[in-house]
Amino acid sequence: MTRPLDGVTVIEAGEGIPAAYCCWMLGVLGADVIKVEAPAGDVTRRLGPFPHDVPDREQSALYLHLNRNKRSIVLDLESATGQELFRELVAGAAVLVEHGDPGWLKARGLGHESLAQSHPELVSTTITPFGQEGPYRDFAASEITLMALGGLMNIAGEIEREPLKLAGSPAHYSAGLFAFTSTLMALTLAEASGVGQLVDVSVLEGLTCSHFQDLVEFEYTGDVRRRGTGKMPIPTQDGFISFAVQAHHFPNFRRLILGADAAPDEASEDLINRDRQRLEGEMDNQILEWALQRTKYEAYFEGQTEAHIPAAFIAEMQDVLDSPQYEARGYFVELDHPDGESIKFPGLPAQMSGVEWEHRRAPRLGEHTIQILNELTDLTADEIAEVRAAGVI
Amino acid sequence: MTAPLPLVGIRVLDMGQFWAGPNAGRHWADAGADVIKVESCRRPDPLRIQARGIYPDHDPGGPKGDHWNRSGMVNERNRNKRSLAIDLTSPRGREIFLQLVSHADVVSQNYSSRVMPSLGLGYDTLSEVNPRLIMISLMSQGLTGPESDYVSYGQNLEQLSGISYFSGYPDDEESVALALPDPLGGASAALAVAAGLRHRDATGRGLHIDLSQRETASLVVGDALVAHSLGGHPARLGNHEPGANPSDCYPTRGEDRWVAISIRSDDDWARLCEAIDQPELMTDSRYVSIVGRRRHRAELDALIGRWTSQLDHQTAMERLQRLGIAAAAVLNPRELFRDKHLRQRGFWESTTDYSAGEQEYTGRPMRLSQTPYGGRTPTPGLGQHNREILGELLGMEDTELDALEAESVIGTEPILSASGGMAVAR
Questions:
Q1: N or C: which end of chain B has fewer CB within 10 A?
Q2: Under CATH, domain A9-211+363-389 is a member of which superfamily?
Q3: Parallel, antiparallel, or unpaired: how do β-strands B207-212 and A123-128 relate?
């Protein structure tokens, strides 16, 4: 075995981010991931963003990002034939991961109970906005509504303005992480005991587990934290930086900004703790002056290497792609784009000693339909031709 | 048929501190592993003793006077664990730790990159003691590379990852940071170890996992990174969701009360017109298409806002949801704890902590049909299980344990430096 999930076949069904993200990681870790797409293709093929903003289902950056290390089969699950073929695929797999409205597979006769009748070791992971039960089970949801209900919007933004959604889809990505861990644990149990199971992952609950302190603060003290506590980033010559200076960083921070010959500050950590905002406030002008003499990267570098304080800059996409840290770690992987051009993708965030990852580009819609049917079903060439003529694949 | 908790039989030495590290440990503890939270009296988890901690009713002391066991931030993420407080800078403490490593499956740590090697506890040393060990180093920026020993908190990493560039009002320079690299890092560490254990069982060999929280966060903007390399120019979108128009937060009755609404199709729009009692808008050519709704966004926001501001946020949500529109009240913590959906699912978990009394915490975002998850034990007090762990795993007798206590190798109270401060950079 060269990678942790070698030999495990995973069927991915449904649309969107969480199942796709989960299964991308399963794929990099060695699983054979078969992505079942509807004839129109996954919704992320339509959402973009697209190069030069020209829609093209083979060029959606979101799709290309989330669906590496997979094979794609097109199956029309609205048809009885498509449903039967789906059953055959699942029969040859250890794991099914799906994302969608609760019960969408069951409505097509493909719920876990039905699939598990002939395949008791099957692990089915179902990711839904609110979980399989509960009053909001059938509520419509999107990233912004989940952030609202999950309480994160309440603390994001400025108090004089409307609450703010965080960029992108962190709720849906987080759900993919939780799905991965519980799927893998259930799989290991299934292999040891022969008992498969249904893993029910709720996107809302995953997000609710991502609060730093406001929930605990309310439970312990009754205080309700409000938004608007963010500090303005500090402008530099070419972008913005920020510092997260704690009391024990303060003497170094002061020397960094005011210079080595600044009068020593006698304040104890206790006093700094109590008065940090005032002390920092008194330096506002000097901080601004210091920052405007530097680029954002220089300010980050000096803050970290000379003063050893938590300094950061607001990285734009080119900064992230050019990061020397990422470069040194080999974080980005270059993959061929369907057009033949080579582009950079973020890789796994973890390196494992002695394990090499393999990265493969995302599949074109239905690229592996015939190959997969040949491998995992007993259809003959003629039968495959007939199924294709019927529009099922 | 019911299966045992998935990680029963797995032992973790969890040296995690702050958020991401203990959060990873919480996943394993919830899943049944024997997770031992390893701290020392000289260097406890900094959240136990932070200057502005969160204590029950703002009272650090409590009846027992042990404020370090009353920190909400610690108690939230260390349930189902045992606590060992051992001084790893003392030769005897280090020796005992290495003996424990031979009884462990996993060592997890999120110190700054210099700490473990300087304690003489780098991976090479640990794997010599236990070749089957999985070690995870849950780092800000990984163990290698020019920025590996930079100090940071979650919000710094969020800024460096690319998330913050997109997080904010489109017309404003301020960016919003919620320190997502911590929960993302914790969840990613949980899965990396799950995969590592599987690999170990197949190969018989342990491994070292070097995880970068900054990298976990950049994955969340992976689509923007890919789009940028393909010549696109992804921009800050605020409350706008791709493929939806409008999507935003609208004011409702009451002070600072809001409802979030996302109109994701022309059908959604038609139903919204019905909901806000303006059916004539359905055929208004300005708004029928998503393009039109995008162009006339300001007028639409005013129209919708006029309707929402007459209702309370829950009512607005329920009415729109009845028509199948994605809408949600913006909940504050008080409302979130009371929310009927999470209540009915039994999401919140209540524990009576060592010294903080009965409190409710977030539960787990997954249910396994054959494996009943559930709380077992509350967060332990500092060093609460010193004697139990060393007796059980290393067979230590009372006299030996007494001596370790007398020499402050193990203990149950923080020993703070003269200045009263702690080194909390990681």
A1: N
A2: Crotonobetainyl-coa:carnitine coa-transferase; domain 1 (3.40.50.10540)
A3: unpaired
